[in-house]
Amino acid sequence: MDAERQRFLARHPRSCALAQQAAGHFLFGVPLHWMRDWPTPATLFVRAARGAELTCADGHVLADFCLGDTGAMFGHSPPAVAQALAEQAARGLTSMLPDERAAEVGALLAQRFGLPCWQLAMTASDANRFVLRWARAATGRPQVLVFDGCYHGAVDDTLVDRDPATGATLRRPSVLGAVHDHPAFTRVAPFNDLAALERALVDRQVAALLAEPALTNFGLVPPQDGFWAEAQALCRRHGTLLVLDETHTLSSGVGGWARTHGVTPDVWVAGKAVAGGVPCAVYGFTEEVAQRLRAVKEAAPEGHSGIGTTLTANALALAALHAALTHLHTEATYAAMQQAADALQAGLEAALRRRGRPWTVTRLGARMELQFMPTTPRNADDVRRHLQPRLEQSLHLFMLNRGVLLTPFHGMLLCSPATSAAHVERLLQAFDDWLAALV
């Protein structure tokens, strides 16, 4: 690690200088403190990003397998989206009125993702907040349920932990400024555990189960065969709305994991990449749920519902969403992503066998995870037992110094339609060099 830190500093004098300058005006030297959550001795600053490549401030071109932590899943600045943004910028950015393409966008959302009714938000965090508010209002129930190890953005209700000894919901120590008693209104169950799920639902106090189809931000934990069919049946039996957050699982196929696997949730959420990386999120729902939402809104007094923000569904975001739904959410796009992911997975697994490392590559569509464990995890506790943060940091810094960008926080790799065989080969060569360098 010491050698790799020195190598980074020698290769990135411009980024180091920019980091010093930015420290005078930005908290932690960056406009969002997450941008320091990389294992680099100084922040890497970006000059440009196009397709599956990122150019840093020092002019080094990196093969990007982070892709904005999924925000740029379709590649950086997809041409169709970039053109739509340029054209719309000349016509207007926001008016708090629907753009004339809104009806067409609604029809495209229904066609792509299989639910008839939609609303927009700026981010998936916003969408999830709004959905939980709608669910509580429509059901009259106070509780929400999430899975241990879930990720649903900056939604306070979901930023809680599970006590492994008692199953009780705990405050998460890392969350800043929490004053409301979210553990009193959020239940946490282990993923892939149907018995625990039913215990959480049986008193009929849970308004919604908010879940990813697979855990994606705590390692990659896929659902076991038949899990979601049984989980949805339990939700229906106990009157709980099933909300699937596909912000990180859109890479599963056209329409996301749910459409690909024939699951129709009550509510479906996606953000980040859904509009090609432009700030935009969507949430869709069945006609039965739509009727319930209309009823609770019409029965409420006039005034702010606590749902929505001024820039939501602005004309610029709608233009990007229209372009993305038309040109990016297609079979051809996903075929290219899957082809690159096939080659990447095969190469990673071959390298692990060749070097005798008993580790696992877990795959979900064009997304995969290198996990320092012998088998695919079943739940978050499996991941916790095998965490090796120093090893992850070593991998990330070593790869970055050799022109390959991985996702910070964990070992996720994502292929875009712009990811080429050369990008995959560059990653595999650097990965093999890292394995050889390990003592």
Automatic annotation (TrEMBL):
The record, for InterPro entries, names: Aminotrans_3, PyrdxlP-dep_Trfase, PyrdxlP-dep_Trfase_major, PyrdxlP-dep_Trfase_small
Keywords in alphabetical order, please: Isomerase, Pyridoxal phosphate
Q: Does the keyword Membrane apply?
A: no
User: Is Isomerase one of the keywords?
Assistant: yes
Molecular function terms in GO for this entry?
A: glutamate-1-semialdehyde 2,1-aminomutase activity; pyridoxal phosphate binding; transaminase activity
What EC number(s) does the entry state?
5.4.3.8
The cofactor required is: pyridoxal 5'-phosphate
Family membership: Belongs to the class-III pyridoxal-phosphate-dependent aminotransferase family.
The protein's name: Glutamate-1-semialdehyde 2,1-aminomutase
Q: What is the species of this protein?
A: Tepidimonas alkaliphilus
User: What is the organism lineage in this UniProt record?
Assistant: Bacteria, Pseudomonadati, Pseudomonadota, Betaproteobacteria, Burkholderiales
State the encoding gene.
hemL_2
